[in-house]
Amino acid sequence: MRLKSLAIVAALALTTALAGCSTDGVSRMFSNDYGGRVDAGYQLPTIPISKVPRQFHRQIVRYETNEAPGTVIVDTGPKFLYLVQPDGKAMRYGIGVGREGFEWQGTSRVAAKREWPVWTPPSAMIKRQPELAKWAGGMPGGPKNALGARALYLYNKGGDTGYRLHGTPEWNSIGKAMSSGCIRLMNQDIIDLYNRVDVGAKVIVQ
Fold first, then answer.
1. Mean pLDDT per 10-residue run, the chain (206 residues)?
2. Is 8 domain-assigned?
3. Which of 82, 84, 105, 118 could join 71 via S-S bond, C-beta 3.0 to 4.6 A?
4. Is residue 2 situated within a structural domain?
5. Which residues pair with 100 in a beta bridge?
6. What pLDDT, on a 0 to 100 scale, did the predictor assign at position 10?
7. What was the pLDDT predicted at 101?
8. How far apart are the first and last CA of the chain?
9. 172-195: pLDDT as tens digits
10. Active site positions, annotated
């Protein structure tokens, strides 16, 4: 009987692992939520999530902070974005951050949200990368757009910071420092974050 019970426990554990979602009372993984889908008429490709380090998969974690639920905290060192939730928890997402020379810190708020946004490269970026000049008037939204499926626009007391929380088709850039300062998430993750974050939400980048 004991061997049979152990076999059942092992089978249940294997089923949970294959589902890509585990619960241990502290964290919950959402590794099974990166499949392809149609979103606003666009085909969102499947992310080969097994190739993304596990710590960067979306998950609920313990997170102690004095910030109110709904606050977004970006920790650029370990490359995590936390959406604060009640009861000492947060939804954690893996992110890509600014490369050397493009890092930044500060507090801002979400002033606007856009689905499949138009991307207009700044003039300074076009100067560094002349091939982007063709998009000076704006690159239409779509699966190849640099802002991905969603964008949250960050403003502070001085107005538009120029920085965004946005999606990216380059899933293999998550966990790396290679952007021009914006905080990028996998497209399936930015859609999830977009649906949870309100306009006006506080955003802390540290």
1. 44 40 64 96 97 98 97 97 98 91 87 92 76 72 92 96 94 90 94 98 97
2. no
3. 84
4. no
5. none
6. 41
7. 63
8. 54
9. 999 999 887 799 999 999 999 999
10. 166, 182
Structural domains of the chain, count: 1
Distance (Å, rounded) from C-alpha 195 to C-alpha 189? 10
CATH number at residue 184: 2.40.440.10
Range of 145's domain?
25-205
Q: In what order do the strands lie in the sheet with 106-115?
A: 28-29, 59-62, 89-94, 80-85, 72-75, 202-205, 106-115, 150-156, 159-168, 183-186
Per DSSP, what are the bridge partners of residue 80? 75, 94
In a domain, 42, yes or no: yes
Amino acid letter, residue 100:
E
Residue 141 belongs to some domain of the structure: yes
Looking at the chain, how many residues does it have?
A: 206
Q: Are 132 and 160 in contact (CB under 8 A)?
A: no
**What is the per-residue pLDDT for 26?**
53
